[in-house]
Amino acid sequence: MAATGAMPTAEPSAGDMRLVISASSLGTIFEWYDFFIWGTLTTTGILGKTYFPAGNEALADLLSWAAFAVGFGFRPLGAILFGYLGDKLGRKYTFLVTITLMGIATAGIGLIPSYAAIGVAAPILILLMRVGQGLALGGEYGGAAIYVAEHSPGGRSGFYTSFIQASVVGGFILSLIVVLTVMGTVSRPQWLAWGWRIPFLFSIVLLAVSLWMRLKLSESPVFKAIKEAGETAANPFVESFTYPGNGKRLFVALFGIAAGLTVIWYTAMFSVLSFLKTMHVEDTTAQLITGGAATLGLVFFILFGRLSDRIGRKPPIVWGYLLTLILLFPAFWVIGSAANPGLAAAAKRAPVVVSGPNCAYDLFAGKQTDPCAQVLDLLAKKGVVYSKAQSASVGVTVGGAPVVDLTVQGIDAALTDAGYDLAPKVPSIQSIAVILLAILVLMALSGATYGPVAALLSEMFPSRIRYSSMSIPYHFGTGYFGGFLPLISQYIIVRTGDPYAGLWYTFAVVAMALVVTALGLKETRGAAAS
Question: Which terminal residue of the chain, N or C, has fewer Cβ atoms less than 10 Å from its own Cβ?
Answer without folding.
Answer: N
